[in-house]
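Q: Could you fold this chain for me?
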Amino acid sequence: MFLFVVVFSVGVALLRGGRVERLADFPFKHVWLVFAAFGVQVFLRPPVAGGDMEWVRAAAPYIYPSAYYMLLLCFVLNRRAPGAGWLAGGALANLAVITANGGKMPVDGEILLRLGQVEIYEALASGRSLTHELLTSETRLPWLADCLQGTPPFPNPSVFSVGDVLLAVGVFILVQATMVARPGAVRQ
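A: Sure. Below is the predicted structure, expressed as structure tokens.
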């Protein structure tokens, strides 16, 4: 979803007269925290975390939330940047539901099945995922879980959370503010 959001945001900015080279003026500091957070998430996805790495399975409920702590820290450190409040809100929403549910993001299995994502559903049902689980009646904060369905115009139908929506809005605002000159602002 986020690759789509970035491409869409850049496309809209270009249509508004934005310039790609202005991305060099990206107003965020400590961006390494964002890359570290994504690194954590990649590390916990199969086949990276597969095999006989039982210590990873045991530590995953603690490692996975750390990705959102890193994102939240980055967004708080950049709180004056355009869209940072939306980004922090999205990271906090996802962190809250993940933490409340033992270190895993709950996912609406009915939506997965409706989208034809049977393999993902089966992986969650069997407990093979280190980062996600099926949403149940026991799920805490279910309205913050991956319970929203993305259909076209998204290139791949998917399930996402309120936190993901807030993060997407933040990315959109940040890209627009970075690429498009404000009226009266002189930019070279």
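A (continued): The CA atoms of residues 106 and 136 lie 8 Å apart.
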